[in-house]
Structure formats: structure tokens, C-alpha cells
Amino acid sequence: MSPFMKRYVRNKGAVAGLAIVGLVILVALLAGFAFPQSPWNSVAEPLLDPLSDMAHLLGTDMLGRDIAAGLAHGARVSLLVGVVSTAVATLIGITIGALAGYHGGRLDDVLMRLTEFFQTIPTLAMAVVLVAIFQPTITSIITAIAVVSWPPVARLVRGEFLSLRSREFVQAAVVIGQSASRIIFTQILPNTMSPIIVTASLMIATAILTESALSFLGLGDRNLMSWGFMIGAARTMVREAWWMSFLPGVAILLTVLAVNLIGEGLNDALNPHLRDRSAV
Predict the structure, then answer these.
(1) What gap in Å lies between CA 47 and CA 29, rounded to an integer?
(2) What is the pLDDT of residue 22?
(3) What pTM value is reported for the model?
């Protein structure tokens, strides 16, 4: 076992989070095999209680749709939105932060004012506006979440670049005539990946919550079942059919909690200060 894995597994919560996320990924991958029919189809009597019908273990909603099928297919949407939007936001943040931190001066001022502008706007409100302007599709949702999520990454990368650009190995690369882009990508950026990875893992949880909120508000992709949509559709049936909103809510809670636990575990394993402390 590598030293990184040894440090990671010391955090029991992080191991539990990894197991939960692994289970969610497995459910998402097997959704098409376990539930070949569309989760939008009515397959049984409406409002079946959980465990009352072995063919539909988690019950049905007011239209007779299988709750288990909705949860399985909704896992695909949550993971897709969380991972892809975080990847796009991280790429944008790294680019802006690296340019601002390495070059400094007027370019730094312009890019940081742009970053601060985006940070002054509430993220959910801006995501709602962006999705409402365009058609509520999975592409527009991912784009909106990425647009509102990149500023923290940009500020983090800028700070790391400011502290590293004056180091001896960077100055040596400048002296031997390496280009700015080569120095950024081969000398500085690899040394900033640890905090970026930790931040990105936590951003996935935020993206899942944001997508759920958008779907709850009726701004989700109408062609795709999602956990947020399931909760929104069940908000008028809480007393009559508690499981309709409770089960997708638990799925969101466990997934977001698990992703946050993974982020904490990565921080423990990658943070050199915590690493030294654990070694004492």
C-alpha cells in the first residue's frame, strides 16, 4: 500500500465516504440493467408503500412511477453534473488563477476584479438566472454551475502561484530561458495540485446540491429524472406519501456527506502539515 493510501485509510470517515460514493456509482452504472424501463413510466398502482410490493421495494409515487427506478436513474444525473461541472469550473479557475498569480500587475488586477464580481453574486441565484435564460437542459445546468463555481479555485491557484513564483526552481527555469507557459505547466502547477484536488472534491458536493435545488425549482432537464425533481414533485404529498420526498432527500444527504468526507480524507493525506503532525 502506498504512503498516500496509508494516510487516507487512517481517516475512517473518508473510507466510509469512499464506500458510499462507490455504491452510488455502482447504482448509477447498473440503473439501465436493473430498471430498463424509463423512470417516467407508470408501472404500478399509485402511492404504493415501501416494502408493500416486492416488485417495487421502495414504493411508487402519485403517478405509479417506481421510486427505486427514479433514485437509480437520478444518481446518473447527480454524478454527471457534479463531476463535469466541477471539471469545467476547475479548468477555468486554474487558467485565471495561474495567469493572475504568475504575471501579476495589471493582468492580476483585472482578473481578480472579475473574480470578485462573480463572488459578489449569490451562486444559486446566478445559476437560476443562467438556466432560466437558456433552455433547462443538462448542458445549460452544467454550464451554469461551472460559471458560478470557478472563483474559489481561481483565488486558491493565484495564492499558490504568488508563493511559488519566487522560489529557486522557478527562477532557475526563467534563467535558462523557459517560456512562461512551460514554467506554469511544468514547474508551478504540479506543486499546486494537492489543494486543487481537495477543493475540487468539495466542489462536487456543492454542484450536486445546486443541481438538486435547480430541479426542485422546476429548472431541471425534463428529459432526465433527478433527485431534486423527485423532491419537488412530492412537496405537496408529504403527509400522504412521505417516502416520495424522504428517500431522494436521504440519497442527496448521503452522497453530499460522502463526497465531503472524501475531501477531508484527501486533505489529511495530501496536506504536508497534517502529514507531519500525524507522523509525530
Answers:
(1) 27
(2) 96
(3) 0.90
